[in-house]
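Researcher: Hi, I'm a grad student and pretty new to this. My advisor asked me to get structures for two proteins we've been looking at. I'm not sure of the right format, so I'll just paste the first sequence and hope you can take it from there.
Model: That works fine. Here's the first sequence with its C-alpha coordinates right after it:
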Amino acid sequence: MSEMQNPYLMFLGDVPDQLGAKTAQGIVDWRPEWCVGQLRLDGCVADLGIKDLSIDEAISAGAKTLIIGIVNSGGFLPAHWTAKIVEALDKGMDVASGLHIRLGDLPEIREAADRNNASLFDVRHPTHDIATGKGEPRNGKRLLAVGTDCSVGKMYTALAIEKEMRSRGWKADFRATGQTGIFIAGTGISIDAVVADFISGAVEELSPDNESDHWDIIEGQGSLFHPSYAGVSLGLIHGAQADALVLCHEPTRTHMRGIPHHPLPGLQECIDLNLKNAQLTNKNARFVGVCVNTSGLEKSEIQSYLAKLEAELNLPCTDPYSHGTKAIVDNI
Protein backbone atom coordinates (compact mmCIF):
# COMPACT_ATOMS: atom_id res chain seq x y z
CA MET A 1 0.00 0.00 0.00
CA SER A 2 1.17 3.54 -0.72
CA GLU A 3 2.01 5.93 2.12
CA MET A 4 -0.59 8.37 3.37
CA GLN A 5 -0.02 11.79 1.84
CA ASN A 6 -0.47 15.15 3.51
CA PRO A 7 -1.73 17.89 3.59
CA TYR A 8 -5.05 16.75 5.03
CA LEU A 9 -8.66 17.92 4.89
CA MET A 10 -10.24 17.03 8.23
CA PHE A 11 -13.76 15.60 7.81
CA LEU A 12 -15.96 15.97 10.91
CA GLY A 13 -19.34 14.95 9.51
CA ASP A 14 -22.06 16.11 11.91
CA VAL A 15 -20.63 14.96 15.25
CA PRO A 16 -22.73 16.14 18.22
CA ASP A 17 -19.92 17.32 20.52
CA GLN A 18 -16.31 18.48 20.52
CA LEU A 19 -15.00 15.26 22.00
CA GLY A 20 -16.42 13.37 19.05
CA ALA A 21 -13.79 15.08 16.89
CA LYS A 22 -10.86 14.25 19.17
CA THR A 23 -8.98 12.39 16.41
CA ALA A 24 -9.06 15.43 14.15
CA GLN A 25 -8.30 17.78 17.06
CA GLY A 26 -5.24 15.76 18.03
CA ILE A 27 -3.84 15.92 14.50
CA VAL A 28 -4.47 19.69 14.34
CA ASP A 29 -2.83 20.25 17.73
CA TRP A 30 0.32 18.22 17.00
CA ARG A 31 0.62 18.44 13.20
CA PRO A 32 -1.04 21.79 12.31
CA GLU A 33 1.17 22.23 9.25
CA TRP A 34 -0.49 19.15 7.70
CA CYS A 35 -4.09 20.40 8.05
CA VAL A 36 -5.42 22.81 5.40
CA GLY A 37 -8.99 22.96 6.70
CA GLN A 38 -12.06 21.20 8.02
CA LEU A 39 -15.17 19.91 6.25
CA ARG A 40 -18.35 19.90 8.36
CA LEU A 41 -21.88 18.84 7.54
CA ASP A 42 -25.01 20.65 8.72
CA GLY A 43 -25.53 20.12 12.44
CA CYS A 44 -21.87 19.56 13.27
CA VAL A 45 -21.12 20.90 16.75
CA ALA A 46 -17.34 20.37 16.74
CA ASP A 47 -14.95 23.05 15.49
CA LEU A 48 -11.18 22.59 15.12
CA GLY A 49 -10.54 26.33 14.81
CA ILE A 50 -9.25 26.01 11.23
CA LYS A 51 -10.78 27.07 7.91
CA ASP A 52 -14.04 25.56 6.73
CA LEU A 53 -13.36 24.36 3.19
CA SER A 54 -15.27 22.50 0.51
CA ILE A 55 -13.55 19.57 -1.17
CA ASP A 56 -12.75 21.71 -4.21
CA GLU A 57 -11.30 24.48 -2.03
CA ALA A 58 -9.22 21.99 -0.07
CA ILE A 59 -7.81 20.45 -3.25
CA SER A 60 -6.91 23.92 -4.49
CA ALA A 61 -5.09 24.45 -1.17
CA GLY A 62 -3.07 21.27 -1.78
CA ALA A 63 -4.99 18.68 0.26
CA LYS A 64 -4.16 15.09 -0.70
CA THR A 65 -6.04 13.02 1.87
CA LEU A 66 -9.47 13.31 3.48
CA ILE A 67 -9.11 12.29 7.13
CA ILE A 68 -12.28 10.98 8.79
CA GLY A 69 -11.34 12.59 12.06
CA ILE A 70 -14.07 11.42 14.41
CA VAL A 71 -14.64 8.78 17.06
CA ASN A 72 -17.92 7.20 18.07
CA SER A 73 -19.10 4.26 20.12
CA GLY A 74 -18.85 1.21 17.91
CA GLY A 75 -16.62 2.83 15.30
CA PHE A 76 -19.29 2.94 12.56
CA LEU A 77 -19.54 5.27 9.56
CA PRO A 78 -22.91 7.06 9.31
CA ALA A 79 -24.52 6.27 5.96
CA HIS A 80 -25.23 9.92 5.11
CA TRP A 81 -21.49 10.68 5.16
CA THR A 82 -20.80 8.38 2.24
CA ALA A 83 -21.65 10.90 -0.48
CA LYS A 84 -18.95 13.36 0.68
CA ILE A 85 -16.36 10.61 0.95
CA VAL A 86 -17.18 9.39 -2.56
CA GLU A 87 -17.01 12.99 -3.84
CA ALA A 88 -13.49 13.33 -2.39
CA LEU A 89 -12.40 10.09 -4.07
CA ASP A 90 -13.94 11.11 -7.40
CA LYS A 91 -12.04 14.39 -7.26
CA GLY A 92 -8.68 12.71 -6.76
CA MET A 93 -8.20 12.52 -3.00
CA ASP A 94 -7.27 9.51 -0.89
CA VAL A 95 -9.30 8.79 2.25
CA ALA A 96 -8.07 7.68 5.68
CA SER A 97 -10.07 6.52 8.68
CA GLY A 98 -9.44 5.41 12.23
CA LEU A 99 -12.89 3.86 12.69
CA HIS A 100 -13.47 0.19 13.41
CA ILE A 101 -15.36 -0.30 10.14
CA ARG A 102 -13.09 -0.75 7.11
CA LEU A 103 -13.62 1.76 4.32
CA GLY A 104 -13.20 -0.97 1.73
CA ASP A 105 -16.08 -2.95 3.23
CA LEU A 106 -18.50 -0.23 2.11
CA PRO A 107 -19.34 -0.90 -1.58
CA GLU A 108 -19.85 2.70 -2.70
CA ILE A 109 -16.54 3.80 -1.19
CA ARG A 110 -14.62 0.78 -2.44
CA GLU A 111 -15.98 1.24 -5.97
CA ALA A 112 -15.10 4.96 -5.95
CA ALA A 113 -11.56 4.18 -4.82
CA ASP A 114 -11.17 1.50 -7.51
CA ARG A 115 -12.41 3.65 -10.37
CA ASN A 116 -10.13 6.53 -9.34
CA ASN A 117 -7.11 4.40 -8.42
CA ALA A 118 -7.25 6.04 -5.00
CA SER A 119 -5.95 4.66 -1.70
CA LEU A 120 -8.04 3.85 1.36
CA PHE A 121 -6.22 3.81 4.71
CA ASP A 122 -7.74 2.04 7.71
CA VAL A 123 -5.15 2.88 10.35
CA ARG A 124 -7.03 1.10 13.13
CA HIS A 125 -6.51 -2.35 11.65
CA PRO A 126 -3.21 -4.24 12.03
CA THR A 127 -1.80 -5.46 8.74
CA HIS A 128 0.40 -8.26 10.10
CA ASP A 129 0.32 -11.13 12.59
CA ILE A 130 1.12 -10.30 16.22
CA ALA A 131 2.60 -12.68 18.79
CA THR A 132 1.26 -13.16 22.30
CA GLY A 133 3.04 -11.32 25.10
CA LYS A 134 5.86 -13.08 26.92
CA GLY A 135 6.61 -10.71 29.80
CA GLU A 136 10.36 -11.22 29.37
CA PRO A 137 12.65 -8.37 30.56
CA ARG A 138 13.97 -6.20 27.76
CA ASN A 139 16.53 -3.42 27.53
CA GLY A 140 15.65 0.24 27.38
CA LYS A 141 13.20 2.30 29.43
CA ARG A 142 9.45 2.65 29.02
CA LEU A 143 6.85 5.08 30.28
CA LEU A 144 3.11 4.44 30.05
CA ALA A 145 0.27 6.94 30.41
CA VAL A 146 -2.77 5.54 32.26
CA GLY A 147 -6.07 7.20 33.13
CA THR A 148 -8.95 7.58 35.55
CA ASP A 149 -11.21 7.39 32.48
CA CYS A 150 -11.03 7.20 28.69
CA SER A 151 -10.50 10.43 26.70
CA VAL A 152 -8.66 12.28 29.47
CA GLY A 153 -5.41 13.15 27.67
CA LYS A 154 -3.17 10.08 27.64
CA MET A 155 -2.01 10.70 24.08
CA TYR A 156 -1.34 14.40 24.73
CA THR A 157 0.58 13.44 27.86
CA ALA A 158 2.78 10.95 26.00
CA LEU A 159 3.49 13.41 23.18
CA ALA A 160 4.29 16.21 25.62
CA ILE A 161 6.69 14.02 27.60
CA GLU A 162 8.42 12.89 24.40
CA LYS A 163 8.77 16.53 23.36
CA GLU A 164 10.26 17.53 26.74
CA MET A 165 12.69 14.60 26.74
CA ARG A 166 13.86 15.34 23.23
CA SER A 167 14.34 19.02 24.06
CA ARG A 168 16.89 17.85 26.64
CA GLY A 169 18.69 15.64 24.15
CA TRP A 170 17.29 12.40 25.58
CA LYS A 171 16.61 9.43 23.34
CA ALA A 172 12.81 9.15 23.29
CA ASP A 173 10.10 7.94 20.92
CA PHE A 174 6.32 8.27 21.14
CA ARG A 175 4.67 4.89 20.59
CA ALA A 176 1.14 5.22 19.22
CA THR A 177 -1.54 2.75 20.32
CA GLY A 178 -4.61 4.51 18.88
CA GLN A 179 -5.76 5.85 15.54
CA THR A 180 -5.04 9.51 16.31
CA GLY A 181 -1.55 8.77 17.54
CA ILE A 182 -0.87 6.72 14.42
CA PHE A 183 -1.92 9.66 12.23
CA ILE A 184 0.51 11.85 14.21
CA ALA A 185 3.44 9.44 14.52
CA GLY A 186 3.06 7.83 11.11
CA THR A 187 3.30 4.37 12.66
CA GLY A 188 1.91 2.30 15.54
CA ILE A 189 -0.67 -0.35 16.38
CA SER A 190 -4.25 0.48 17.29
CA ILE A 191 -4.58 -1.69 20.37
CA ASP A 192 -8.37 -1.74 20.55
CA ALA A 193 -8.46 -3.55 17.19
CA VAL A 194 -6.10 -6.30 18.36
CA VAL A 195 -7.61 -9.64 19.41
CA ALA A 196 -7.54 -9.76 23.22
CA ASP A 197 -4.96 -12.55 23.57
CA PHE A 198 -2.43 -10.53 21.57
CA ILE A 199 -2.73 -7.07 23.18
CA SER A 200 0.27 -7.40 25.48
CA GLY A 201 2.30 -8.88 22.60
CA ALA A 202 1.42 -5.90 20.41
CA VAL A 203 2.74 -3.51 23.06
CA GLU A 204 5.92 -5.56 23.42
CA GLU A 205 6.35 -5.27 19.64
CA LEU A 206 5.84 -1.49 19.78
CA SER A 207 8.48 -1.07 22.49
CA PRO A 208 11.15 -3.73 21.91
CA ASP A 209 14.71 -4.04 23.21
CA ASN A 210 16.55 -0.75 22.90
CA GLU A 211 19.56 1.15 24.17
CA SER A 212 19.70 1.32 27.95
CA ASP A 213 19.15 5.11 27.98
CA HIS A 214 16.35 5.13 25.40
CA TRP A 215 12.74 5.86 26.46
CA ASP A 216 9.66 4.54 24.70
CA ILE A 217 6.75 6.81 25.65
CA ILE A 218 3.68 4.60 25.25
CA GLU A 219 0.24 6.05 24.63
CA GLY A 220 -2.32 4.59 27.02
CA GLN A 221 -5.91 3.61 26.26
CA GLY A 222 -9.08 3.43 28.34
CA SER A 223 -8.99 2.92 32.10
CA LEU A 224 -8.86 -0.04 34.45
CA PHE A 225 -12.00 1.41 36.03
CA HIS A 226 -14.04 1.71 32.83
CA PRO A 227 -16.31 -1.34 32.36
CA SER A 228 -16.10 -1.03 28.56
CA TYR A 229 -12.35 -0.67 28.08
CA ALA A 230 -10.57 -2.12 31.11
CA GLY A 231 -9.41 -5.16 29.15
CA VAL A 232 -7.50 -3.04 26.66
CA SER A 233 -5.96 -1.01 29.49
CA LEU A 234 -4.76 -4.14 31.31
CA GLY A 235 -3.15 -5.62 28.21
CA LEU A 236 -1.30 -2.35 27.65
CA ILE A 237 -0.05 -2.28 31.22
CA HIS A 238 1.30 -5.83 31.07
CA GLY A 239 2.86 -5.45 27.62
CA ALA A 240 4.50 -2.11 28.38
CA GLN A 241 6.48 -3.41 31.38
CA ALA A 242 6.68 0.27 32.25
CA ASP A 243 9.48 1.63 34.41
CA ALA A 244 7.47 4.83 34.87
CA LEU A 245 3.73 5.51 34.89
CA VAL A 246 1.87 8.81 34.62
CA LEU A 247 -1.75 9.14 35.69
CA CYS A 248 -4.04 11.25 33.47
CA HIS A 249 -7.23 12.87 34.76
CA GLU A 250 -10.03 15.23 33.72
CA PRO A 251 -11.36 16.88 36.90
CA THR A 252 -14.78 18.06 35.71
CA ARG A 253 -16.11 14.54 35.01
CA THR A 254 -18.89 13.33 37.28
CA HIS A 255 -18.97 9.79 35.86
CA MET A 256 -17.13 7.49 33.45
CA ARG A 257 -17.53 8.61 29.85
CA GLY A 258 -20.66 7.06 28.36
CA ILE A 259 -21.69 5.34 31.61
CA PRO A 260 -23.68 7.80 33.78
CA HIS A 261 -24.27 5.28 36.58
CA HIS A 262 -20.54 4.58 37.06
CA PRO A 263 -18.59 7.16 39.12
CA LEU A 264 -14.93 8.03 38.55
CA PRO A 265 -12.38 6.42 40.87
CA GLY A 266 -10.33 8.40 43.34
CA LEU A 267 -6.87 9.33 42.05
CA GLN A 268 -4.98 7.46 44.77
CA GLU A 269 -7.22 4.45 44.22
CA CYS A 270 -6.40 4.59 40.51
CA ILE A 271 -2.67 4.90 41.17
CA ASP A 272 -2.70 1.93 43.53
CA LEU A 273 -4.56 -0.43 41.17
CA ASN A 274 -2.50 0.51 38.10
CA LEU A 275 0.73 0.07 40.04
CA LYS A 276 -0.31 -3.33 41.36
CA ASN A 277 -1.03 -4.53 37.82
CA ALA A 278 2.10 -2.94 36.34
CA GLN A 279 4.30 -4.73 38.87
CA LEU A 280 3.21 -8.09 37.47
CA THR A 281 5.62 -7.57 34.54
CA ASN A 282 7.98 -4.98 36.08
CA LYS A 283 8.31 -5.20 39.85
CA ASN A 284 10.16 -1.86 39.87
CA ALA A 285 7.37 0.14 38.17
CA ARG A 286 6.54 3.42 39.85
CA PHE A 287 4.44 6.54 39.27
CA VAL A 288 6.37 9.69 38.35
CA GLY A 289 3.59 12.25 37.94
CA VAL A 290 0.00 13.22 37.25
CA CYS A 291 -1.21 15.00 34.11
CA VAL A 292 -4.49 16.91 34.33
CA ASN A 293 -6.62 18.20 31.48
CA THR A 294 -7.50 21.59 33.02
CA SER A 295 -9.40 22.95 30.00
CA GLY A 296 -12.71 22.68 31.89
CA LEU A 297 -11.49 24.61 34.94
CA GLU A 298 -11.55 28.36 35.50
CA LYS A 299 -8.09 29.83 34.93
CA SER A 300 -8.08 31.25 38.44
CA GLU A 301 -8.45 27.79 40.02
CA ILE A 302 -5.97 25.78 37.96
CA GLN A 303 -2.84 26.42 40.02
CA SER A 304 -4.55 25.82 43.35
CA TYR A 305 -6.10 22.60 42.05
CA LEU A 306 -2.73 21.28 40.84
CA ALA A 307 -1.04 22.28 44.10
CA LYS A 308 -3.74 20.49 46.09
CA LEU A 309 -3.23 17.31 44.06
CA GLU A 310 0.54 17.49 44.50
CA ALA A 311 0.13 17.69 48.25
CA GLU A 312 -2.34 14.80 48.33
CA LEU A 313 -0.44 12.45 46.00
CA ASN A 314 3.16 13.53 46.61
CA LEU A 315 3.76 13.63 42.85
CA PRO A 316 4.33 16.49 40.38
CA CYS A 317 1.02 17.51 38.81
CA THR A 318 0.68 19.53 35.63
CA ASP A 319 -1.41 20.19 32.54
CA PRO A 320 0.87 18.67 29.89
CA TYR A 321 -0.51 20.68 26.98
CA SER A 322 -0.70 24.17 28.50
CA HIS A 323 1.97 23.90 31.22
CA GLY A 324 4.37 21.30 29.82
CA THR A 325 5.89 18.29 31.54
CA LYS A 326 9.19 19.66 32.86
CA ALA A 327 8.42 18.74 36.49
CA ILE A 328 7.54 15.15 35.57
CA VAL A 329 10.66 14.63 33.45
CA ASP A 330 12.71 16.21 36.26
CA ASN A 331 11.21 13.58 38.58
CA ILE A 332 12.17 10.81 36.18
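Researcher: Oh nice, that was easy. Here's the second one.
Model: And its structure:
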Amino acid sequence: MSNETIHNPKEPRHFMRAKIVPRTVRVHRGGKVIAESDNVLRVTELAKDMLDPVLYFPKEDISVPLLPIEGKTSHCPLKGDASYFTVDDNGEAIAWAYEAAFDFAEVINGRIAFYPDHVVVEEVGTSS
Protein backbone atom coordinates (compact mmCIF):
# COMPACT_ATOMS: atom_id res chain seq x y z
CA MET A 1 0.00 0.00 0.00
CA SER A 2 1.44 3.31 -1.06
CA ASN A 3 1.45 6.28 1.28
CA GLU A 4 0.69 8.63 -1.59
CA THR A 5 -1.97 11.25 -1.11
CA ILE A 6 -5.03 10.91 -3.32
CA HIS A 7 -6.19 14.23 -4.78
CA ASN A 8 -9.33 15.35 -6.51
CA PRO A 9 -7.93 16.64 -9.84
CA LYS A 10 -10.58 19.37 -10.01
CA GLU A 11 -10.00 20.53 -6.43
CA PRO A 12 -6.44 19.95 -5.19
CA ARG A 13 -7.35 21.14 -1.66
CA HIS A 14 -9.67 18.08 -1.34
CA PHE A 15 -7.54 15.01 -0.70
CA MET A 16 -7.22 11.83 1.31
CA ARG A 17 -4.57 9.43 2.47
CA ALA A 18 -5.14 5.70 2.91
CA LYS A 19 -2.93 3.53 5.09
CA ILE A 20 -3.26 -0.08 6.21
CA VAL A 21 -4.10 -0.34 9.93
CA PRO A 22 -1.24 -2.33 11.51
CA ARG A 23 -3.65 -4.34 13.69
CA THR A 24 -6.63 -6.64 13.29
CA VAL A 25 -9.86 -4.64 13.40
CA ARG A 26 -13.21 -6.07 14.49
CA VAL A 27 -16.75 -4.65 14.14
CA HIS A 28 -19.58 -5.69 16.51
CA ARG A 29 -23.28 -4.92 16.52
CA GLY A 30 -25.61 -6.23 19.18
CA GLY A 31 -22.89 -8.51 20.53
CA LYS A 32 -22.35 -10.17 17.13
CA VAL A 33 -19.13 -9.83 15.12
CA ILE A 34 -20.02 -8.52 11.68
CA ALA A 35 -16.53 -7.91 10.31
CA GLU A 36 -12.95 -8.77 11.21
CA SER A 37 -9.87 -8.09 9.14
CA ASP A 38 -6.14 -7.50 9.20
CA ASN A 39 -6.41 -5.66 5.87
CA VAL A 40 -8.30 -2.53 6.89
CA LEU A 41 -7.60 0.87 5.37
CA ARG A 42 -7.68 3.96 7.56
CA VAL A 43 -8.65 6.85 5.30
CA THR A 44 -8.06 10.41 6.45
CA GLU A 45 -9.69 13.08 4.31
CA LEU A 46 -9.37 16.83 4.09
CA ALA A 47 -12.18 18.70 2.33
CA LYS A 48 -13.46 22.01 3.66
CA ASP A 49 -12.39 20.65 7.05
CA MET A 50 -10.44 17.66 8.35
CA LEU A 51 -12.86 14.73 8.53
CA ASP A 52 -12.74 11.95 11.10
CA PRO A 53 -10.76 8.94 9.85
CA VAL A 54 -12.84 6.18 8.26
CA LEU A 55 -11.99 2.47 8.31
CA TYR A 56 -12.65 0.54 5.09
CA PHE A 57 -12.91 -3.27 5.33
CA PRO A 58 -12.52 -5.70 2.42
CA LYS A 59 -15.95 -7.06 1.44
CA GLU A 60 -14.71 -10.62 1.88
CA ASP A 61 -14.08 -9.93 5.58
CA ILE A 62 -17.72 -9.04 6.30
CA SER A 63 -19.30 -12.01 8.09
CA VAL A 64 -23.02 -11.09 7.90
CA PRO A 65 -25.15 -10.26 4.89
CA LEU A 66 -25.34 -6.53 4.27
CA LEU A 67 -28.65 -5.56 2.70
CA PRO A 68 -28.61 -2.68 0.20
CA ILE A 69 -30.87 0.25 1.04
CA GLU A 70 -32.76 0.95 -2.18
CA GLY A 71 -32.71 4.57 -3.29
CA LYS A 72 -30.19 5.78 -0.70
CA THR A 73 -27.08 7.17 -2.38
CA SER A 74 -24.73 10.10 -2.05
CA HIS A 75 -21.94 11.63 -4.08
CA CYS A 76 -18.43 12.63 -3.03
CA PRO A 77 -16.35 14.62 -5.52
CA LEU A 78 -13.24 12.80 -4.30
CA LYS A 79 -14.51 9.22 -4.10
CA GLY A 80 -17.61 8.90 -6.29
CA ASP A 81 -21.12 7.59 -5.64
CA ALA A 82 -21.81 5.74 -2.39
CA SER A 83 -24.41 3.07 -1.73
CA TYR A 84 -25.66 2.23 1.77
CA PHE A 85 -26.34 -0.99 3.68
CA THR A 86 -28.29 -2.28 6.66
CA VAL A 87 -28.30 -5.58 8.56
CA ASP A 88 -31.84 -5.67 9.88
CA ASP A 89 -35.48 -4.94 9.08
CA ASN A 90 -35.47 -1.39 10.42
CA GLY A 91 -33.44 -0.24 7.41
CA GLU A 92 -30.98 1.80 9.46
CA ALA A 93 -27.84 2.53 7.43
CA ILE A 94 -24.84 1.09 9.26
CA ALA A 95 -22.37 0.93 6.37
CA TRP A 96 -21.54 2.35 2.97
CA ALA A 97 -19.36 1.58 -0.01
CA TYR A 98 -18.05 3.24 -3.13
CA GLU A 99 -18.66 0.33 -5.49
CA ALA A 100 -17.13 2.17 -8.46
CA ALA A 101 -14.88 4.82 -6.93
CA PHE A 102 -13.21 7.26 -9.27
CA ASP A 103 -10.01 5.90 -10.85
CA PHE A 104 -7.83 8.11 -8.67
CA ALA A 105 -9.61 6.77 -5.52
CA GLU A 106 -9.77 3.11 -6.58
CA VAL A 107 -7.98 2.02 -3.39
CA ILE A 108 -11.39 1.97 -1.64
CA ASN A 109 -13.15 -0.13 -4.33
CA GLY A 110 -14.40 -3.42 -2.91
CA ARG A 111 -14.36 -2.10 0.65
CA ILE A 112 -17.10 -1.34 3.19
CA ALA A 113 -17.05 1.41 5.83
CA PHE A 114 -19.19 1.40 8.98
CA TYR A 115 -20.79 4.25 10.90
CA PRO A 116 -18.94 4.21 14.24
CA ASP A 117 -22.06 5.42 16.08
CA HIS A 118 -24.06 2.36 14.87
CA VAL A 119 -21.44 -0.34 15.57
CA VAL A 120 -18.56 -0.98 17.93
CA VAL A 121 -15.15 -0.91 16.25
CA GLU A 122 -12.07 -2.20 18.04
CA GLU A 123 -8.45 -2.76 17.11
CA VAL A 124 -7.57 -6.11 18.68
CA GLY A 125 -3.87 -6.79 18.29
CA THR A 126 -1.15 -6.96 15.75
CA SER A 127 -1.86 -8.19 12.24
CA SER A 128 -0.02 -11.27 11.09
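Researcher: Is there anything I should tell my advisor about the second?
Model: You could mention this: The domain at 5-120 is CATH 2.170.150.40 (Metal Binding Protein, Guanine Nucleotide Exchange Factor; Chain A).
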